[in-house]
Amino acid sequence: GENVEQHPSTLSVQEGDSAVIKCTYSDSASNYFPWYKQELGKGPQLIIDIRSNVGEKKDQRIAVTLNKTAKHFSLHITETQPEDSAVYFCAAIDSGNTPLVFGKGTRLSVIA
Amino acid sequence: KAGVTQTPRYLIKTRGQQVTLSCSPISGHRSVSWYQQTPGQGLQFLFEYFSETQRNKGNFPGRFSGRQFSNSRSEMNVSTLELGDSALYLCASSRTGSGANEKLFFGSGTQLSVL
Lengths: 112, 115
What we know:
heterodimer, A: mainly beta, five-stranded antiparallel β-sheet, 58% strand, globular, B: 115 residues, mainly beta, seven-stranded mixed β-sheet, four-stranded antiparallel β-sheet, 0% helix
């Protein structure tokens, strides 16, 4: 089955700097890669996703890149703000009838 | 539109007891998935229900079970609780679930503490 590795497990950045979180996956059949953000006391919320036919996707200050050959994808947050502090999860899924597989999460702290 | 509702928000149980958690999905969503979240282990998939049928099951012991009702509401049950079952249990709903590359909508979870 699919296995998703996520790094780093914790990340601290100064406000205004960029943050990058990286994930690798094992199943070459995976074709959908969402990113979820979990704030304290809340459930994860989808912030951006990318499909295998696209190499990069941007939404304001966040972007995701995908390298299918290397089987890795990354989340980029620019101009970080204190409200970006949260736990971020990457995930992967193939087109079969299988559940979403999550990485173990990255705790991002943005220091004002 | 109401989000995913999980009850109760907090639970404290002792070893050997059993517990039932409830999840009401977003109206119109037929798939409900359950995840266990523990520090350092991330989100571990428990099972998914679609139209009252279990469609997928994760690698958890048989003490963990679930069901879905005709109105798509779901419950999960853990019997003979162990200390290691202490975790945040998250429910997520989507229109059609697994393999559909759909957005999952999560509830805020039930924090279970086993003493």
